[in-house]
Every structure is written in C-alpha cells, then in structure tokens.
C-alpha cells in the first residue's frame, strides 16, 4: 500500500510525533510512505529513513496555493490514498486536492476545538473517513453533525518503554540548573492559553508554603511565555517556577518528576500524559476533552474540574503529602500505557481504516 501523509506542523512533538510513530509502523509492515511536510521541518528529517519526504511550502489555513501543490504531488506519485494529519491548512486544502485527483482521503482529527456545524458539513464532506484520536473528540464531532458512518476512533500511542527507565535526578538537576532536592512538578505543553498554566500558578502559593523547596517546570514554548513570566514574578514564584522551554530529552527528565500537572481547558488526548504515565509519574489533570481516557481517576492520577484552582491545589497537596499513593498511581500508569496505548495498536487501527476504505 502506498500512502501519502500530509502534516503541516514544523516541530516534532504532539501530532507530528504521532505521525512519525505511524510512518515507522507502516514501513515495518512493508507499506510505502510518502510524506508531504514543510521544507526542512524536524518531522521530515526524522522520517527520512521510513518515508520519501517531499518538502513543500505550507503557509497555514489561508494558503489556497497548497491545493495545486498537493494535487501535483498526488498526480506525480499516484498514492493509493491520502492521509491528512494536521489542521494547518492540510485538512481543507488537502481534502480539495485529493478530491480533484480522485484519490481516497482520510483525515485525523487531534483537537477537540468546537467547529460550526456549517463548517463541519462543508469540510468533512471532502473526507472519506475521519479518525478521532480519542472518544472525547469523537463526541465533539458527532455533536457537530459529522455522519457516524465516516467516523472512526484510533487512539494516539506512546513508545512507553522509552520513558520507563529510571531517572537520574542529579543529572537532570545539573542540566536544568536547579537543586536536586524537593518535590518536582511539571507541565509539558505549548505555552498557549487553553493549556491552563495560569491555573497552576494561582494554586502554587499555599503549596510553596507547605513545601519550601518545591520546583515547577514549564516544558514547552509558545506565545504565552512572556505573560507567564510576568505572572510568575507577580506571584513571587520566581525561585520556584522555571520556564524551561521545549525539550528533546523528556525521556530522561520525566522519570525524575514527582507529579505531572495538566490543567488544560481543552485537550484532544494529550501525548505528554501518555509519556508521563509511561515514566511512572502520577498525574493531576483537568476532566476535559479526551484527558479522562489517558488519566483514569484513581488509577494513574487525579482529575479535577477545568479551571478550578481550589480543586487543583487540593489534589496536588494530597499527592505531595502521600508518597505511597504517588507510587501506586505511577505503577498504574505504566500498566495502562502498555495495555491500551501501544504503538502497534495505533498502527493497526489506522491500517484497519485504510483497508476498510480501499476494500
């Protein structure tokens, strides 16, 4: 089977990393991958051993010229189907290009942002199948009028064994430039408003009073960085909160954490939650979107209402005071990832959709 994958993201995290997992799995099963992505992007470089990479100009949702660029590529390469992986212009423009060339098209939806019913009716008419990466996203799509016969659910995956090694706290502390002592918390997410970093900042003062050596890391980058820096200083948290930027060594850092915090208001599923659970790190997260599929309350973490600062603080305080419970939740997370979020299951799920579509 020859599949053309289209991904507009430039950075190798989140959805783009899921695409890489899929490309590797399909290649290992003898299928041929073509990848259209922004020229010179990190995904293209990582995928080169398992896909023929075509770097294209991709300028976002308003890039109308992406249609003829992709249509030309489809006519040249003649794939059996096109799989659209991102919303950065690829979902709409890629759908039009596939329709113009008469090639079956699949779109993976990774976010639970609501869309207008008229847009759903118009855009998803272009796609033969829509894959939601969580039941939470599937509920949103069904509620917006997507025909059930087009919708399939294939959960995101994690290479859980990669994150399951023991952490070296001393080495991590040296790398991050902080003391190795005290509880370590982290948020692994883009620095954007809907990820909810501000709720954690507001919950921190009483936690810092109870744990004076508490350290909190915000791993990620994004436009909210300067505003978060101002909030940290205004709350007097400069000695406790570190804006650590994007990291490519999370497999070494996550096992050193005591807790992962994910106070997002919206989330399709949350790859960082899968990574942390694989590392045996208990999680405190919002009960939003697809998060409850990755964080089972009482099994590998605690869930709180989105935006509820008091509930978030209470959950963190309870786990910081109970190391035995943290260990139990961490063990539960590793078992959950191995059982339900394997890369093999994700690859086979996508292949099942391809085979169904192609007959």
Automatic annotation (TrEMBL):
Domain Glycosyl transferase family: 174-334
Ranges of residues in domain Glycosyltransferase subfamily 4-like N-terminal: 14-160
UniProt feature coiled coil, ranges: none
Species name: Candidatus Thiodictyon syntrophicum
InterPro entries documented for this protein: Glyco_trans_1, Glyco_trans_4-like_N
Pfam families reported in the protein's UniProt record: Glyco_transf_4, Glycos_transf_1
Keywords, ordered alphabetically: Transferase
Molecular-function GO terms, alphabetical: glycosyltransferase activity
Protein name: Glycosyl transferase
